[in-house]
Every structure is written in structure tokens, then in C-alpha cells.
Design a protein that fits this description.
Layout: H1 2-10, H2 36-49, H3 67-85, H4 91-110, H5 114-117, H6 123-134, H7 138-141, E1 151-163, E2 169-180, H8 183-189, H9 201-204, E3 207-217, E4 227-234, H10 236-242
Helix pairs in contact: 1-4
Length: 243
């Protein structure tokens, strides 16, 4: 399955250069009062903790597209990648193919099936994900798996080309996906969510944003396929609360 998926991605792919360190500092709130009401609130917060999903890897969270990057992405795709790297490359086809990768990777993470990730996800990324997933509760792991039909908005945040001194070259694409868990079932039942679902409390726990970064080597004479080297899932309403 991984070979087939990587072949599909290889027909329409790239890599992006965004090596920014990001530190996710968790805030600790000291509770000094012994009032029963305060302790009840703390118990409630612990109960909702199972519905919170911390970021899986250290990477700046991406939520929305950039117009400037949109223009650059279009130029890279049409004036560099297609004419010099891959004449059949299509950014739209890559976006659709990448959704299959998201479904496979996220499903494997939920089941702690890291063997499935081999050949599709970079080894260093797998090691980082093993550590992150091992620290999640069972309830939190159940939030990881994503069906591609639950993705309602996807866009390439950044497309880039990397060269080194030995004439090796790579293409990197950082993707952002907006997800509403259960959207597929809603569509099938005809119960469509409102346009303002992001502001509706009943939907907030089911809205996720995913950042995946894909990379492929395009050095002359090298046969390669797309790899995933960044995987991040987070809930936007929890991220906003931290700001």
C-alpha cells in the first residue's frame, strides 16, 4: 500500500524549506485555594483534558494561507518544477493524492502501527512521533485517525526547492488541512454543518488542523518518491486559548 501511495504522490510532488524551531511551552496554573468549588473546576478540567490533542512535532502551527506564498507557490510549480523536474506535475493532483497519505499516516498513528509508516514517513520523524504518541492517553490517540472525506479545506502553504553544494536538489511542499471529524457521515445523512461551524461550541472539539510536509529528491539520475517529514495535528480553539 505504501509503495502504491508513494507512486501516486511521486507523479505530482515537491519539498519545502521551513526550518523554524518551535517550542511548545505548556502553561501550568497553580491552584492555591482549597475551596471545594475550585477543586471541582480542576476535576472538570482534567476531564476535558482527554479531548485536547497536543501538537505531535515541534513545528510552527499553520492555519491559513498566505497570499504572497500563494503567488510564489504558483511560480515554483509552473516555472521550475514542471519544466525542469517533473513535466507531469500538477499541484491540484498532488493535493488530492496527499489526502490519501494523511489517512494512512493518521490511522497508523492512532493504532501505534509505526511499521506501516516505514517507506512513507522519514525515519527521524517516525522516532519523534513514537515519543509523542507514547505520551498520549488512549482517548487522545482516538483523535488522531482522519478520513480523507472529513477534510473540508486543504491548501499548500509553501512550495520550495532546495539545492546543496553537491548539486543535489529537493522539492518540499508543506500542506495544511482543515478537518471536521464526522463530516463524511454528516454528508451521507444530509445533516450538513453550518458555515459558521468554527464558532459553534458543539463542533469545536471535532475541528482539527493538520500540517504535513512532503519532500522528494529530484537530483539528476536519482529515482525517488515523496516522503513525509513533518506531521502535526492540533485543535485550533485550543491553540487560540494559549495565545
Amino acid at each position: 500500500m505504501n509503495l502504491v501511495l508513494r507512486h501516486v504522490l511521486t507523479r505530482q510532488s515537491l519539498r519545502l524549506c521551513d526550518k523554524i524551531a518551535y517550542n511548545n511551552v505548556q502553561k501550568q496554573i497553580a491552584i492555591t485555594s482549597k475551596c471545594p468549588i475550585i477543586q471541582y473546576r480542576k476535576y472538570s478540567e482534567q476531564g476535558t483534558e482527554t479531548r485536547k490533542l497536543p501538537q505531535l512535532m515541534e513545528f510552527p502551527p499553520i492555519m491559513w494561507p498566505s497570499f504572497i506564498k500563494y503567488v510564489k507557490n504558483w511560480m515554483f510549480s509552473n516555472f521550475i518544477i514542471r519544466p525542469y523536474f517533473d513535466q507531469e506535475f500538477s499541484l491540484n493532483e498532488f493535493i488530492e493524492a496527499s489526502k490519501h497519505a494523511v489517512q494512512i499516516v493518521s490511522g497508523a498513528l492512532q493504532n501505534s502501527d509505526f511499521k506501516t509508516l516505514e517507506g512513507l514517513v522519514d525515519k527521524d520523524a517516525i522516532n519523534a512521533l513514537k515519543t509523542a504518541v507514547s505520551q498520549l492517553s488512549v482517548s487522545q490517540r482516538q483523535l488522531l485517525a482522519i478520513e480523507k472525506e472529513d477534510i473540508f479545506y486543504a491548501f499548500p502553504y509553501q512550495v520550495g526547492v532546495i539545492f546543496d553544494d553537491s548539486d543535489k536538489r529537493w522539492v518540499e511542499i508543506t500542506m495544511c488541512y482543515h478537518v471536521l471529524r464526522g463530516l463524511k457521515n454528516m454528508k451521507e445523512s444530509g445533516d450538513m454543518p453550518p458555515i459558521t461551524l468554527g464558532a459553534q461550541p458543539q463542533y469545536q472539539d471535532n475541528i482539527f488542523i493538520l500540517n504535513y510536509r512532503f519532500i522528494r529528491e529530484f537530483t539528476k539520475g536519482v529515482e525517488d518518491s515523496w516522503w513525509v517529514n513533518i506531521v502535526n495535528h492540533f485543535q485550533p480553539h485550543m491553540l487560540i486559548k494559549k495565545m
